User: Which sequence fits this backbone?
């Protein structure tokens, strides 16, 4: 673990999020793996899609759409997403065209109206940010907040206070 020696700074995005996928690894893989195995045991073909949560949601949506088109051309797809993954999935829909037969979209814990947690992270007030600041011996709270604020993915989860409907509104 490189956290005590300032490893969190390696996550900084100096070029506004133009990094590749980090993959489904470690703790998150352990969280989603049982669901994947249960769905496979029930006879479903399942895949875990890895994305770099630091990148912008529109860019991630385009990448997901490209992956879905390449992986499931003209095949039925049921998409299950959690938290930010629901926003990424929703952002992929305009880019799918008719090449993916999206049968169902289930989202769990997705901040469709936005969330204040990313703001707390960027300000260093979220439980996760507070924990990191206790273990990182090389950066102060301001430097950690600056690192978190380079993540367009966090900005994309903030609430929007617009009266105009977005493209997903069904009205």
Assistant:
């Amino acid at each position: 673990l490189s956290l005590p020696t300032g490893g969190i700074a390696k996550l900084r995005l100096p070029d506004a999020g133009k990094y590749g996928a980090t993959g489904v690894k470690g703790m998150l893989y352990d969280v989603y793996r049982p669901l994947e195995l249960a769905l496979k045991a029930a006879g479903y073909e399942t895949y875990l899609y890895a994305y770099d949560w630091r990148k912008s949601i529109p860019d991630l949506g385009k990448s997901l759409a490209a992956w879905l088109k390449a992986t499931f051309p003209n095949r039925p797809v049921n998409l299950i997403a959690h938290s930010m993954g629901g926003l990424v999935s929703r952002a992929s829909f305009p880019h799918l065209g008719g090449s993916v037969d999206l049968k169902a979209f289930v989202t769990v814990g997705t901040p469709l109206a936005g969330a204040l947690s990313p703001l707390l992270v960027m300000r260093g007030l979220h439980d996760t940010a507070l924990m990191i600041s206790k273990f990182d011996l090389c950066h102060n709270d301001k430097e950690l907040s600056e690192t978190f604020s380079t993540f367009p993915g966090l900005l994309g989860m903030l609430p929007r206070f617009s009266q105009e409907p977005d493209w997903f509104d069904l009205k």
